[in-house]
Amino acid sequence: MSSIRSHSSAGAIGLLLLVSFLWGTTGTVAAQAPNVSPLAIGAASLGIGGLLQCVVGARSVWANRNSLAKNKAMVIFGGISVMIYPLAFYSSMSLGGVALGTVISLGTAPLFSGILERVADGARLTVRWYAAAALGILGSALLGFSRATDCEGGGSAVLAGCLLGLLAGASYACYSWATGRLLSAGIERQGAVGSVFGLGGLLLMPVLFLTGAPLLDSAQNLLVASYLALVPMFLGYLLFGMALAKVPASTATTVTLSEPAVAAVLAVGLLNEHLGALGWTGMALIAVALIILLVWNPRSERETTSAPRHQKPCFQGIHCGICQQDPSAELTR
């Protein structure tokens, strides 16, 4: 029995590594359509992908329609956040480079999650959260400074890329938090994810209509958009869900920390982006900050707190160190 479980877990980790690789290719693939604006790329990838998520979860969305209607404000908040995320994410990579945009966007999302839960839920932030925040801020600053002298457009373009990366991280945290609140209201996972991503995808359709004409100018542009929507966004999530049935969410989240590393390696190796010693140091600090947030066992910090305990797991599915609990495997990216 133990050998079967071990084999199953190994297979799940293999799936997670594949998913991390697929997610890490988004910036490099988007760069293969240089004549297409990042707004069009973002609207196509998460717009079409989000609508497909809604189609997959349509039965659950319909079954939970009354609960979703009662929580429509949270659905709208999450949907707007989903709309903002890809526009900021791909614009950040376009201005500051794939490595910078990916690392800052994904590296700061857990920090914004902590701030949001502190402000909205009254959760008490832990010492390790403040340590991770300090490392994340320092790492982002070093990464941005390193890129400023190498990126076309100079410091102003990198600064804009950093700010958009922060916006992407904040919007990621917001739609994660909103979906988590829907889960806490007793709504099924597919219904919560389908409604939030479906609304976000619908809101992105006007952006795609206004900016997406260049996607049809060549087969390569169309192939880029199709890949981003169908492979990282759609197939990636399906594989991620399969893996979560075999391993704990904390393990899954730890394995997918390799995504920014994959993005950085591809950017340096295939797009000839240059980071330098400061850039790599900044990336390392952000990685340490993520490990502190996601891996460090928070049991030693579970002291009496006034923070409310969630009725269901944190949406991120990690040992968040904020609400002082071990969530189960209700996780999405």
Describe this structure in words.
The protein is mainly α and 333 residues long. Helices cover 75% and strands 0% of the residues. The chain contains 14 helices and no strands. It has helices at residues 2-24, 26-30, 38-56, 58-63, 65-70, 72-96, 98-121, 127-148, 154-184, 189-211, 219-244, 249-255, 258-270, 276-294. Helix 3 runs antiparallel to helix 6, helix 6 runs antiparallel to helix 7 (98-121) and helix 9 (154-184) packs antiparallel against helix 10. It is globular.
Q: What topology emerges from the helices and strands here?
A:
Elements (H helix, E strand, L loop, with lengths): L1 H23 L1 H5 L7 H19 L1 H6 L1 H6 L1 H25 L1 H24 L5 H22 L5 H31 L4 H23 L7 H26 L4 H7 L2 H13 L5 H19 L39
Helix pairs in contact: 1-11, 1-13, 3-6, 3-10, 3-11, 6-7, 6-9, 6-10, 7-8, 7-9, 7-13, 7-14, 8-9, 8-14, 9-10
Provide a quick synopsis of the model.
By secondary structure, this protein is mainly alpha-helical. The chain contains 14 helices and no strands.
The amount of helix comes to over 70%
Q: Evaluate the radius of gyration.
A: 19 Å
Number of strands: 0
Shape: globular
Question: Which percent band covers the strand fraction?
Answer: under 5%
Total helices: the number is: 14
Number of domains: 1
As residue ranges, the low-confidence spans are 297-333
Mean pLDDT: 78
The secondary structure category is mainly alpha
For the largest beta-sheet, the strand count, sense and barrel status come to: none
How many angstroms does the end-to-end distance come to? 31 Å
Order of helices and strands: HHHHHHHHHHHHHH
